[in-house]
Design brief:
There is one protein chain. With 287 residues, the protein is α/β, with parallel strands linked by helices. 31% of the residues lie in helices and 28% in strands. The chain is built from 8 helices and 14 strands. It has a 6-stranded mixed sheet, sandwiched between helices. Strands 2-1-4-5 form a 4-stranded antiparallel sheet, covered by helices on one side. It has a two-stranded antiparallel sheet with strand order 11-12. The radius of gyration is 21 Å and the shape is globular. The chain binds adenosine-5'-diphosphate and magnesium ion. The site of adenosine-5'-diphosphate has 12 residues, from strand 1, strand 2 and helix 1.
């Protein structure tokens, strides 16, 4: 292993994953490599369908890659038998999803407590750990609330407390701000930042929310399953050659390069029209 192994909590090396549906195969992630060190926040951005969730699921040992290797906190999960993976997921990785995914019939406290208990703690210890975590996340007065009684931001903070329940070195977040208003979204991202800076977690967050770039140590760009270091500027825009609308490159439904010129598309509809007859639109936009 490389000399970075001591600090890199997460190492992803040349990982690929394809989905087969009937006769079509989608290459969701292609030859992706990245590392996340303790104390670091790394963002993965990219358009919808570019493979972000697939990449994150593999990092959390929820999904096995077809090729490549992944180390989670020093454990090569790609060489770990299936029956040993639940333990890795429980203790080494905390997941925060797009929606909080809390158990509806359990209180905030219980939602966190059950995860601590699952790792072998007594009910009493689990309760006090859950209480401490929720208090740290400014939810000390919401312990007995059911998920439906919480605001979106509060529910996501409970989800973070749950992700931290067993003090994992790695926190993975898949579009954690997607269902939050922008102010609550900022707060959530600053919470993730604190996890890295004050508690030494390795944080890998997937998002296409460019407002939260400020908290990132590094930003990776994923497009068609391939990682690149430098994303297009968030403010860079182009004109959709099909409908003529202005498109933020970052939020484009897709991009094409024809004869050395890049085109960005507002939606799948325009992308399909373009693909059916590129010459038509290329000629128009050059005229
Ligand atoms: P993102 O999170 O960036 O939107 P995903 O990782 O969800 O991207 O998807 C990447 C590609 O793989 C997409 O083309 C998507 O349609 C496809 N895909 C994702 N999950 C599955 C699945 N379970 N079966 C088949 N195709 C899938
Ligand atoms: Mg996704």
């Amino acid at each position: 292993m490389s000399e970075t192994a001591a600090t890199d909590a997460l190492i992803v090396s040349k990982v690929s994953k394809a989905y087969v549906a009937g006769e079509t195969e989608v290459q969701a992630v292609a030859d992706a490599s990245l590392t996340v060190a303790r104390g670091e926040v790394v963002l993965v951005q990219g358009p919808s369908g570019s493979g972000k969730t697939t990449l994150l699921a593999m990092c959390g040992a929820l999904l096995r890659p077809d090729a490549g290797r992944i180390w989670v906190d020093g454990i090569e999960v790609t060489a770990t038998p299936e029956r040993r993976l639940p333990e890795v997921r429980l203790r080494r990785v905390g997941f925060v999803f797009q929606s909080a995914n809390l158990l509806a019939n359990l209180t905030a406290l219980e939602n966190v407590q059950v995860v601590v208990e699952a790792a072998g703690a007594t009910r009493r210890d689990a309760g006090s750990r859950a209480r401490d975590l929720l208090a740290e996340l400014r939810l000390g007065d919401r312990l007995d609330s059911l998920p439906r009684q919480l605001s979106g931001g509060e529910a996501q903070r409970v989800a973070i407390a749950r992700a931290l329940a067993n003090d994992p070195p790695i926190v993975l977040a898949d579009e954690p701000t997607a269902n939050l208003d922008s102010r609550t979204g900022y707060q959530l991202m600053h919470t993730l930042e604190l996890l890295a800076k004050e508690r030494g977690k390795a944080v890998l967050a997937v998002t296409h929310d460019h407002r939260i770039e400020d908290v990132a140590d590094r930003i990776l760009w994923l497009e068609d399953g391939r990682l690149a270091d430098r994303p297009p500027s968030a403010t860079e825009t182009d004109r959709d050659p099909v409908c003529g609308m202005t498109v933020t490159i970052e939020h484009a439904a897709g991009r094409r390069t024809v004869a050395g010129h890049d085109y960005a598309f507002c939606s799948e509809i325009c992308l399909d029209r373009f693909d059916a007859d590129p010459d038509r639109y290329v000629n128009i936009s050059r005229a």
